[in-house]
Write a structure and sequence with these properties.
The structure is a single chain. The protein is α/β, with parallel strands linked by helices. The protein is built from 13 helices and 15 strands. It has a nine-stranded mixed beta sheet with strand order 14-13-12-11-7-10-9-8-15. Strands 3-2-1-4-5-6 form a six-stranded parallel beta sheet, with helices on both faces. It starts with 5 loop residues before the first strand and ends in a 23-residue tail after the last strand. The relative contact order is 0.13. The structure holds 6-O-phosphono-beta-D-glucopyranose. The site of 6-O-phosphono-beta-D-glucopyranose (BG6) has 3 residues, from loops.
Length: 474
Amino acid sequence: APERPVIFVLHGARGDLAKRMVIPGLAELSARGLLPERWALLGTGRAAIDSADFAQIVRSSLETFGPADKAAATQAADALTARASYAQEVVEGEPDGALTGAVAALRHTLATGDNTPDDVLVIHYLAVPPTTFVSITRALGEHGLTKGSRVVYEKPYGTSPDSFRELDDVVHGVLKEEQVFRIDHFLGKEATQNLHVLRFANELFGGVWNREHVEQVQIDVPETLDITDRAEFYDATGAALDMLVTHLFQVAAEVAMEPPHGLDADHVSPAREAAISCFRPLDLAHDVVLGQFDGYQAVAGIADGSTTDTFVAARLWIDNDRWRGVPFLLRTGKRMAVSAQRVTLVLRTPKELFGEEVGPDRISLSLSGDGAIEITTTVKRPGPDLTLGTGTARLALDDVAPGEPLSPYASLVHDVIIGDRSLFTTPAGLRDAWRAFAPLLGPDRPQPLPYRPGSWGPAEARALAAPGGWVLGD
Ligand code: BG6
């Protein structure tokens, strides 16, 4: 466990993200002994609630989203609530408020033994809507709360190239880059982290990771999930902003990057950024389909006549030597037929000897849960004749002993505590992501096409994956 005492300030303490992801992530770290001995959880937000109310939020979060085992969930809640308190959010232009006092007091409480209050690491985790990042950052600066702190920003970091730039200027006005952690939790998934290892530690895979051997790449994240419990955020955001420019672009960059010279942040992040700098701006006329599920506009909190996309499929082109001509097919949506998170490299297959019977051969990673790697290859069908079929070998990553997977939020929060920045996004990479995404924010953005809940999205999206089609789906 890290030694430096930590105050974890959870902004947006009552919000969906805090309850669903951040609090359970902290509970996981606590249960695994990955938090320092002296740490405190300080909830904050606009609401004038008290510490007992916040403790109740922590408890109910862990009942619903914590360990499946009831006794373990209660134990986790006891462990966290014992260290939890609440203070109201600092606000720009107002005198020092409750949060400033609470942080100062906790610094003193936690600084025992060899530590001084200044040694205590304060982590501000902004689990708040992206529209409030600027004002909260300014307020943190104004109230002296950035000193000796790390600040974690949820995605999306900005909502357009301009707002990204404005946010980044404000952030760099009060924070040094090494204090800033921009989270994209898809980078923290065990299977995503395995992309590096699979490829750079195994000649078998590293050797085929290019346009000569790969026909197309699919990064497919259909979700059965609804948006009812966060309608307001969702209606202002939509699938493309929520998932495409963020998670799917970052995973595409992880697949596409050149081998870095080392596996630390100073090498991995530039390699990922270099890949993003080769993303061609989306061609709306040929490469993008937006969708909206039937009934979306009837959901409480959704504006009548809303044109928000709940589905996006895009064909992304990466203009460099390794990937020129290989489509990266990205797809995600709400209320789709199944929930899955799959990265697939569809391999080219030689047809000379066996004809069309060969393939499809694939290397595939499931990013959900603890992660899995699947290899689909052409083999001889058992029996007297020489006929071909395909077979799939599956390796569940949690079968790799000894080891116990960490959930992405736990893994990334741990990285923030120990100061490992390799799985966080950087301004240069995000600038290029926004550049490639920008056409979708302009006047030519296509109208979302309707699709039936429980389906694979609008039929028009099928053509993007031609000729083989989407690996998942009907
Ligand atoms: C979040 C998005 O970042 O990721 C959600 O805002 C999406 O819309 C979620 O459902 C998917 O995360 P997970 O944990 O299922 O991989």
